[in-house]
Amino acid sequence: MAGVEFAAGAGPGRRRRAAELRWQEPTTRLALRWGTYRGRYLAGLLLIVGGLLHLQSSTTHLLWPLVVGTVAHTIGWWILPAAGWRRLVVPLACGVQVWLLLTGPQSMWTLLIPYCAWLLVRHRPAVSYTTVPAVAANGVLAIVLFREYAQMPLALLMSAVVLSGSAWAARFLAAARKTKASAGRMFK
């Protein structure tokens, strides 16, 4: 079988170069002290988003979601796979930001803070920050479209779509940058 692969042009050197061209999440290469990469990533993402949504369910008569949502949101940032200082810096700024969302859809522009924090924690290169204007435009659009707190679920839904799309675009830009750099080194 190895002779067939080699005859087809997929020798060991070529396979190694192909592996160098494939992009890999920078955080997957971190040595984790506990848990698996996928488990910590999914749990962290679930707690970040779930904490934000839970916090939004509070009222002046029901304050318990404020505590639960804030704690879940903070723990979510702490358990994401990332360099330690990145995970420790982010929760304070993002914790303040999710409380600002309690003022209504007019504060959707503050989602710039957790979005930039996401790029930082995910170890995205500088080129990925070119996706930030889309998130800012989402904030402006929310100010124009939504006036009442009753419209907050729609504003959150629109923001979730924009932030998810921007995060995937940032990932694509990081992968394209890495692949292009690797290809340039390989063919020199």
Automatic annotation (TrEMBL):
Keywords in alphabetical order: Membrane, Transmembrane, Transmembrane helix
Top-level taxon of the source organism: Bacteria
Keyword Transmembrane helix: yes
Transmembrane segment boundaries: 39-55, 62-80, 100-120, 127-146, 152-176
Protein known as: Integral membrane protein
